[in-house]
Design a protein that fits this description.
Shape: globular
Distance between the termini: 22 Å
Strand order of the largest sheet: 1-2-5-9-8-7-6
Strand content: 35-45%
Number of strands: 14
Number of domains: 2
Largest sheet: 7 strands, mixed
Number of helices: 6
Radius of gyration: 17 Å
CATH superfamily of the largest domain: Bira Bifunctional Protein, Domain 2
């Protein structure tokens, strides 16, 4: 594992993407204490921002090189979420759960998120950059008011501080291994089952946007390709592969920035 550290950067994702195009090895990590332009998923044309005071969180991007095509690369987000949730459960003793496609939750509040971006060279997926933002020793009072109510941190939940380096040394190999497992058709079903076991969504009412309309249903697990399966009011099933899905009505703490 090679770690490239800087106290402050615009975005670890940008640094990792440039290094991946340059041939950097899988498992290379770009780590910062502060991001001035940390970004999240683009939802309905809006590029979400990640808020983290300096030194409070894990802000990193990892280069992985899974044997997947471009259309399958979104599954890396799910795999990285599984790895992160399992590590945090073990190291912090908290009931960390997953919200499709990329959020880490504890007690109904957002703890962190994953952003996976494909690196495409000559029309093929040469790497995936896995961005990971986790609120570790974050004083929630330091967050912008508009996101404070729906956010949390490891320290806020556990009542103690955590060694970020210890967490990092467990998170990185777990995420790299999870990316390899989701890329292998033989181990992919088990990885998706691990995601479902950690899901905060299954059996819950959700709202999502599809074809310009807002619709509601009940989350019923994952499709074999990682799409979210939702049961509509008439009993039919639909698969959500892109966009935003929120618990119940699309308001309040469920509409949060992502990493």
């Amino acid at each position: 594992m090679q770690i490239v550290y800087a106290p402050a950067v615009e975005s670890t994702q940008d640094l990792a993407m440039a290094a991946a195009h340059g041939g950097a090895a899988p498992g290379t990590v770009f780590l910062a204490d502060l991001q001035t332009h940390g970004r999240g998923r683009r939802v309905v044309g809006e590029l979400r921002r990640w808020h983290a005071p300096s030194g409070s969180s894990i802000l990193m991007s990892i280069i992985v090189r899974p044997a997947l095509d471009v259309a399958q690369s979104a599954m890396i987000t799910l795999a990285a979420g599984v790895a992160a949730a399992e590590v945090l459960r073990g190291r912090a003793g908290l009931d960390v759960q997953l919200k499709w496609p990329n959020d880490l939750f504890v007690g109904g509040r957002k703890l962190g998120g994953i952003l996976a971006e494909g690196c495409v060279d000559d029309g093929r997926l040469s790497a995936v950059i896995v961005g990971c933002g986790i609120n570790v020793n974050l004083d929630l009072a330091e967050l912008p008011e508009e996101v404070r109510a729906g956010a949390t941190s490891l320290s806020a939940e556990a009542g103690r501080s955590f060694d970020r380096l210890d967490l990092l040394t467990h998170l990185v190999p777990a995420i790299v291994e999870a990316a390899e497992r989701i890329a292998d058709p033989a181990t992919r079903p088990a990885m998706l089952s691990r995601w479902e076991a950690l899901s905060a969504m299954t059996g819950r009412e959700v709202t999502f946007s599809a074809q310009g309309q807002t619709r509601a249903g009940v989350a019923r697990g994952l499709e074999p390709d990682g799409a979210l399966r939702v049961e509509l009011a008439d009993g039919t099933l639909t698969a959500i592969r892109a966009g935003e899905v929120v618990f119940g009505e699309p308001k309040g703490a469920d509409v949060l920035p992502v990493v």
